[in-house]
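User: I want to check something. If I give you two sequences, will you return the structure for each one separately, not as a complex?

Assistant: Yes, each is folded on its own. Here is the first sequence with its structure:
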Amino acid sequence: MDWDKVIQPSSSYLVLGDTDTGKSALAYWLLDKYSKQYGLLPVVAGLPLEKAKLLPANFVTKQEIEECKGIENAIILFDEAGLQLPLDNRKISERVVNLLSLPYHRNQIFLLVYHYPRLVLARYLPFFQGFLLKRPPYLITFASKRHSDELTVMMKEAEAQFSQFAPDKMNSWTYVVAPKLRWRGMLENPLPSFWSVELRKVWAGVDFDNRSAPQPISDQAWLELKFSEVRAAAGRDGVQTGENLVCNCGTKCQELYCEACKPCFVKWALSAKPKI
C-alpha cells in the first residue's frame, strides 16, 4: 500500500494524534504533494494573515471556513480544526454535515487535523474516506468518549504499531485506516520541503475568541438529521419504535416514522433540538 492509493480526490481525511507527533507536518506534506499530483489549488483555512509568509507562494489562505465552500478543484487543510470546526458541538450539526458533503461534489480534498478524538462525534465518521493517526495521547481513555469507540480501537491499534519504533523515528510514520480499501497499516511520510519551527508553532499566540459563532440549525434540517440517525441505528428504512421513542398517536402502527406516526416523531425530535 502507498499514499497514492489512500489519498484520492473528492474525499475527506481525519488526522489525529498527540501534541508534537507530526500531525501538521503530515497534513502540509499531503497538501503540497497532492495539490501538485492532482492539479488542485492548495488552501489553508484559518491561518492568520501574518503567518502566510511561512507557506509557499502558490498556497492560498482563507480566514473563514465558509470561504472554502465555494472553491472547486482544491485540497484544503483545516489545521487545529478543533478550534475552527468543533465536531463535538451538536449545535452546528447542519454546518458540519454540509461542509463534509462538499468534496464529492466539488472535486475537493479535505484534511482535518484534530488533537483529541473526543472532539469528533461518531455520527461524522462515515464522511471520512481515511483516518491518519500519529501516535495517540498517552491516556487514551481520556482522549475519547463512548460514542467514539471506533476511534478508540484505531488509537489502540496505532499505539501498538508506534511502540515498535524508536522515539526519534515515530514522527516519520503514520498509522492509516482506509475503510474503502479494506486496509490498515503504517505508511512513512517525510517532512514538507518548506517545514520550519515557526510553521510547527504557527498557532502560538493566535486569538480564537472572535471566530464566527455557530449558526442555528433549521427545524427541517434537524428533523432530517434525527431521522437519518434513527434509521442508521436500526439498519433499515423501516425504523421500529424504540424503548424511549413510544408513539403517542393512538394508532397501532409499529414504525417510528410513517404517515400515521409522523406527528409524534416530529414532536419528539424537535423537543431534543439544541437551543443556541
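And separately, the second sequence with its own structure:
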Amino acid sequence: MSHPFSRSAVWGSARPSLAPLFLASVTLLAIGSASCAPSVRAPVHLDCSTVKMSALPPATPLMAFEGFSITPPQADQWCVEHLDKKIGAIFVTNPLIGQTLTAMPPAEDQSHTLAAAVMAVYLDQPVFDDTALRDFVARWLGSGQLSQVREGHQVLESSSTTPHRFTLVESNVVIDESPNCIRYDATFEERDNPHFPGQVLILVEKANLLCRVPGSKTGELVMIGASERYPQARPPAWKYMDTARGELDAFTRSLRFPAAP
C-alpha cells in the first residue's frame, strides 16, 4: 500500500508498492547527508541542485502529458522532484530553498514542505457518475489516501486493513463545478516518518481535484492539487496554503483535456 504521489511509490523502474500521494511526500532537505553537517564549516547555498533535483524555471509554460495538460507553478524556488510524460509530475518547495545556510536548520524548518502534483490514476472499483465518485473519494480519504501499483497503473484504494502512517483528521468532499470532477479538502496526521522519528506531522490539502478523463474506456482519472506538511508540535508562523493560495488554485485549475475528435 502506498500514497500515490510518493517518490518511491510511483517513479523509477522498480515501482515498489509501499510508500506514502498528495501528502507532501518529499523530505526536501537531506542536508545531514549532503553538503551540510550539524555545524556547518562554510556557508552553503541551498537550491534545487543541492537536494539533487532540477529547478523549475519561473513562468514555465504549458506541460503536456498523455491525455491531459497543465500549467506548472509559476513562482520561483520550485524544484522538479519527478516528471514523467505518461504519468504526471511532482513539484516541491521549502522555505529554505534559495537561502544561504551557516548552520543546520531546525527540524521544523526542514519538514515544512509543499508539493504540487498531477497524476493519472485508476480506482479499485468502477465508478459511473459524479455522486459515486464523490462517495469513493470520501472513503479513500478515510483509508489514508492509499494506493497500489497494478499492471503499471497507480490504483487508489477505497479501504485498507493494513496499518499505515496517515490518519484522517477532517475532510470535505463535494462535486465540483467542473464537469466530471470532485473537489476535496483534507487534513491528516502522519506518524513514523523515517526522516523525522518521534514527530507527528500535519498534512493539509485544499481544493484538490480528482477528475474522470472524458471519453476514457479504461476508467482513467487525473488527480491534481497540492499538499503542505509541517510539524504538529511547532507549526510554522505562516503556511503555504495561505500565502500561495492563488498560485496553487491556478495550478489546480489549469488541468485541461484535449477536445474530443
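Because they were folded independently, the notes below concern the second chain alone. The CA atoms of residues 191 and 199 lie 7 Å apart. Residues 130-142 form the longest helix (13 residues).
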